[in-house]
Write a structure and sequence with these properties.
There is one protein chain. With about 775 residues, the chain is of the alpha+beta class. The chain has a domain of about 210 residues. It is globular, with a radius of gyration of 30 Å. The protein is about 55% helix and about 10% strand. The strands form five sheets. Strands 7, 8, 9, 12, 13 and 14 form a six-stranded mixed β-sheet that branches. Strands 1-2 form a two-stranded antiparallel sheet. Strands 3-4 form a two-stranded antiparallel ribbon. Helix 11 runs parallel beside helix 13, helix 19 crosses helix 21 and helix 21 runs antiparallel to helix 22. The chain starts with a strand and ends with a helix.
Length: about 775
């Protein structure tokens, strides 16, 4: 019995009330199972992404991953301190980056830092005490998990709740998306993928013919907002713009045009671009960029289709209308191009469409994530689920609804761009998850139907046949489940130098192997899984922050620029923003030239500011009978000893400019790395010019500093060369005992420039 408004309620009334509540919210056994499975998938997605915290806890600080997230963090910190729009209203130029001109921080996409700053202020207002860097690191995990939830609803719309669950699971454990949404990966892909998925969900729902026009408009507005957020968050928003334009154009070609398509497309694209152009940094120039023009062209096609659908034109007049539309589209491009209003496509985007263009752009090719992924990388990304992907393509083609046509275009273009640039495998991940989910359900349906069949005849032969069919169905279902287990639960055994010697590190689930990785800075910039955090880079950044002035310029290869400026609190010449290719070419020249020519280049800056130069190397300690101590130490190739090739190629690409400016001259000139030695069966053999290069001398000095600290236990393999104008200030990692992290030892060397000695040797006339 229960009391309700002073009266007793009977048991039947309570049960009746609960039943009506359940009917209202459609709570039944299948719904409970689906909700439970979805919660479990989201829990798995969150847990796998937070695994790197295992290496952050001992250091007492949760760090960001890779390099670019530190740039996003610096903007977020500025917004928290000065207001959400402050980087743009204050005309903020960060003079600790890209010395001497500084980095114009107004040229930054605001979606991610603004989202983080706003949410951080809400959290702080609620009294939750957490430092900003920790919050940003955790936000990547939260938004990555949220993306999996959005994909569930897309999959549900595509093929039902089962497809949605499989799609969410595949995305949660997709290596490319997992790496870019795990702890600390606070970068543009996070708002990008979330905005893309919300846009797809809203836009496809707006086109649902079963939905009212009012409901369709509401979803169109939601799609426009998601599109604006995507544009404000990631430069790859060009992809979804052109994918949507292509999809609508295909619908017109297939004679599936209706007025609803014109309205929804116009509202989504028009409102989305209108909002995006009001976003700081985007501006009206975005509308005249080459990738946006197809959006306008397709809108003109839709207007033409609307005129022709009323049959007020003859076939001949319709052909004239089509020709006039084409001429109008092409004719508008000529004056835009002639007067310079049509924006060019950035080199990075051209290299995605035409991968061969990267051969002539060493600055783009030098970044590992910009390279064409090998077939092995694609297999690691897709796994055995590629079979389900192919089968899913078949089922999608077999039922070419508007949603499925979009999914086909999404999958095919995503596969092309993912195979063109390793970084864009993250765009393929949601399309692959959806199509693979459709493939799995398409394969399971006939088996499940046979299991549900009941005998309708009493004929013994038919009952036997039904029993056999059910047995085959069970076998088929088990085979599919086994394939899924190999996708999620196992990983091919492989050999790696992660621990001491050659050890087997495979056998763990692929997702676990991709998630259970420390942040780059906690692994000292090496692709290792150490038992404890590796403090070499952290110690170096702590040293520069405590002992150098923020105005001191530390010369370093551009990869480490964000770490040095944000964490090390010093000024740098270049970083991953790559806004000035000439400065990176000059930086490459500094490292690859002789000491005298390197300082001649650095003399073009203020000598009072440019005081230090940094080099990073990974050393490999190995036993050898010929060594008097029993151990040799050699450079392994994971630090600057592996990156110098790109220093040579990038600076060599500026050969003519550097020659005209008087820096390159006979005896110290090159076009690529071949001027510094040659490859042999024993590795790279340095030539005389290579041995005299500044990079070789700094790497050699750092290697010998480590060898000397071992009290004669190891012998360095590089030549012991003398530095004329550079003096070691702090060698982080030279006291590391080999075996602490396997056979690899990361060492970061900081050297002070002896300008007095250089100026004495090169008196000014």
């Amino acid at each position: 019995m229960a009391i309700r408004e002073g009266k007793l309620m009977s048991k039947d009334q309570i049960n009746s009330g609960l039943k009506s509540f359940g009917k209202r919210f459609k709570f039944n056994r299948s719904s409970v199972l689906v909700i439970s499975a979805l919660i479990l998938i989201l829990l798995v997605a969150f847990t796998v992404r937070i695994l790197p915290m295992r290496w952050e806890i001992p250091s007492g600080q949760i760090h960001l991953n890779e390099y670019d997230p530190y740039y996003q963090y610096s903007i977020t910190e500025y917004m928290v301190d000065n207001g959400l729009f402050s980087p743009y209203t204050n005309n903020w130029v960060n003079y600790q980056q890209w010395y001497p001109n500084g980095l114009n921080m107004r040229m930054s996409l605001p979606a991610l830092p603004m989202t983080a700053a706003a949410l951080y202020q809400v959290v702080s207002f609620l009294g939750i005490n957490v430092d900003l860097m920790t919050f940003c690191a955790l936000l990547a995990v939260a938004l990555g998990t949220l993306s999996c939830l959005v994909l569930y609803f897309i999959g549900k719309d595509m093929g039902g709740r089962a497809v949605g669950l499989f799609a969410a699971l595949f995305l949660a454990l997709a290596p490319s998306f997992l790496q870019r949404s795990s702890l600390g990966f606070f970068d543009t892909e996070i708002p990008g993928i979330l905005g893309l998925l919300v846009f797809v969900l809203m836009f496809l729902r707006s086109m649902d013919p079963k939905r009212s026009l009012r409901g369709g408009l509401i979803y169109s507005i939601g799609a426009a907002l998601a599109l604006a957020y995507f544009i404000a968050g990631w430069g790859a928003a060009y992809y979804i713009l052109d994918l949507t334009a292509l999809f609508v154009f295909v619908l017109v070609l297939l004679k599936r045009y209706d007025r609803r398509l014109l309205i929804n497309y116009g509202v989504t694209m028009g409102l989305g671009l209108l909002i995006a152009t009001r976003v700081p940094y985007i501006g009206l120039s975005y509308l005249t960029s080459a990738p946006v023009l197809p959006v306008v062209a397709v809108f003109i096609v839709l207007l033409a289709a609307e005129f022709m659908r009323h049959n007020v034109f003859s076939v001949k007049n319709k052909m004239y209308l089509v020709m006039v539309s084409i001429v109008a589209i092409l004719g508008s491009l000529v004056p835009l191009m002639y007067f310079g209003y049509l924006g060019d496509i950035a080199g990075k985007f051209v290299s995605v469409i035409l991968p061969g263009a990267r051969e002539n752009a060493p600055l783009i090719a030098s970044v590992a994530e910009h390279r064409i992924p090998a077939w092995g990388n694609l297999y690691v990304e897709l796994g055995i689920a590629v079979i389900f992907f192919i089968i899913g393509l078949y089922f999608t083609l077999k039922n070419p609804t508007n949603r499925n046509l979009f999914l086909l275009l999404f999958g095919v273009t995503g596969l092309y761009f993912g195979a063109s640039m390793a970084r864009l495998l993250v765009i393929l991940a949601p399309a692959f998850a959806l199509i693979a989910g459709i493939g799995i359900i398409g394969m399971l349906k006939p088996f499940m139907s046979l299991l549900k069949e009941t005998p309708t005849a009493t004929v013994k032969a038919k009952r036997k046949l039904l029993r056999v069919n059910k047995e085959y169905s069970i076998i088929g279902i088990l085979l599919i489940l086994v394939m899924l287990m190999t996708q999620f639960a196992f990983n091919p055994t492989q050999t790696s130098m992660v621990q001491t010697g050659q050890v087997q590190v495979g056998g763990a689930p692929r997702s676990y192997a991709n998630g259970y990785m420390p942040t780059a800075i906690s692994a000292a910039g090496l692709p290792l899984v150490p038992p404890e955090p590796m403090p070499q880079w952290l110690n170096m950044l702590k040293y520069t922050s405590n002992n150098l002035h923020s105005t001191d310029v530390v010369v370093a290869w551009w990869d480490y620029g964000y770490w040095l400026s944000v964490m090390g609190d010093v000024t740098t010449l270049a970083d991953n923003a790559t806004v000035d290719a000439a400065q990176i070419e000059n930086l490459g020249f500094v490292y690859m030239s002789t000491e005298d020519d390197a300082l001649a280049m650095l003399s073009t800056y203020d000598q009072k500011r440019v005081q230090y130069i940094l080099v990073f190397t990974s050393l490999f300690v190995y036993p050898h009978n010929e060594s008097p101590t029993g151990f040799y130490v050699a450079q392994y190739g994971l630090g600057d000893e592996g990156k110098w090739v790109w220093m040579a190629r990038i600076s060599g690409g500026a050969h003519d400019r550097l020659t005209n400016e008087g820096f390159m001259h006979p005896g110290n000139t090159w076009s690529d790395e071949m001027a510094f030695g040659k490859s042999s069966d024993y590795g790279w053999e340095w030539s005389a010019q290579g041995i005299n290069s500044l990079i070789y001398k700094l790497l050699s000095a750092t290697e010998h500093a480590f060898a000397n600290k071992t009290n004669g236990l190891v012998t360095a393999t590089s030549m012991d060369v003398d530095l004329q104008y550079f003096e070691p200030v702090y060698i982080s990692g030279d006291d590391t005992s080999f075996g602490s992290y396997g056979d690899l030892i990361p060492v970061v060397g900081l050297y002070k420039i002896n300008w007095a000695a250089y100026n004495a040797a090169h008196p000014k006339p």
